[in-house]
Design goal:
The protein contains 14 helices and 13 strands. With about 400 residues, the protein is α/β, with parallel strands linked by helices. The protein folds into two domains: about 130 residues, Aspartate Aminotransferase, domain 1 (Alpha-Beta Complex), CATH 3.90.1150; about 240 residues, 3-Layer(aba) Sandwich (Aspartate Aminotransferase, domain 2), CATH 3.40.640.10. The strands form three sheets. Strands 2-8-7-6-5-3-4 form a seven-stranded mixed beta sheet, sandwiched between helices. It has a four-stranded antiparallel beta sheet with strand order 9-10-13-12, with helices on one face. Strand 6, helix 9 and strand 7 form a beta-alpha-beta unit. Bound molecules: pyridoxal-5'-phosphate (PLP). Pyridoxal-5'-phosphate binds next to helix 5. The site of pyridoxal-5'-phosphate (PLP) has 13 residues, from helix 5.
Amino acid sequence: MGFTLAERLRRLPPYLFAELDRLRDEVAAKGVDIIDLGVGDPDQPTPAHVIEALCEAARDPATHRYPAYSGMRAFREAAASWMKTRFGLELDPDREIITLIGSKEGIAHFPLAFVDPGDVVLVPSPAYPVYRGSTILAGGEPVELALREENGFLPVLEDIDPQLLKRAKLLVINYPNNPTAATATVEFFSQVVDFAREHGLIVVSDAAYVEMGLDGYRPPSFLEAPGAMDVGIEFHSLSKTYNMTGWRIGFAAGNAELIAGLGKVKSQIDSGAFDAIQLAGVAALTGPQEPVEEMRKIYASRRDVLIKGLESLGLRPCPTRATFYVWCRVPEGTDSRSFASRLLTEAGIVATPGVGFGEAGEGYVRFALTVGEQRLSEALQRMQQLSW
Ligand code: PLP
């Protein structure tokens, strides 16, 4: 029997990483030893005290029941106190914070709360594909704002078509940025607040990598910009900070009406994050932060190996001081898909073609620093055998 997919699903592009996994598996099936620098999934374990906290919480039958929709108060309080320590922000854990089943869940559901069919959502390009996909699922129209190297991979807000701006409802920003690894200042965030006020936009800030500043750099929160709480919501993730991608835990912080809207959607769709995982999240946010500093050192040192190696091969990686990605220009005369596919088929290296993150990503590939230095060196040696 033939089933017809809903129009909204037919409008969705294939999910980039699912596509990549399929290609990688095809090559691996031929017996090739793959060095996977594709998906941004940390290779290090979750800190031991967080695992202990989960085990203990899971033994308590009180955690076995349905969680509260907006999340456990203990987790929201921990998130609020973390936002205070880290950014000096005072947030009300009852109205200005909500627990998420990973930040992807919140980012994906948010447009359902505020985007009507025909509304425009201004999404960066290149970008995490979920901004685009969730806009389409909500019936909205994603419009890409190109992030160009010459502008430090920041969107040029003045260049947005005024006609589109009239229909625009949300503006999505993501710093430190995936995939370019670019960072933004509080001054830039203040310009975003002014722009959002002038044009009646809601700002969605994705801060998944805010704890991945390297070399002593501490990236700011969008909510630090004066007035940001009037116009925005920010998505935080425990995934990369504490090597917890599989646990599915994060939170949103920001304007109370925006948090309430998201909460209303979630109450129709999910039944909250497992309480034991939220209690483990409390341990992560309020416990010792040395493992986070360790993690930063590991990525900084891998970044140095990869950037130095790529440069010595004549490639031009962008300098980076945040995230665990290296965004690198492809050699002259090729494009991002052909270069990534050569790396895979001729060297067994998975890298993500820039165009997969949006049209403005053409001309680049993204390497994730999710393997050890020895494997990175091996990847570089293999690349040396290729000519371009
Ligand atoms: N935002 C960005 C930019 C990401 O790259 C990711 C994951 O890779 C996420 C959000 C989602 O993270 P999680 O759902 O694990 O919190």
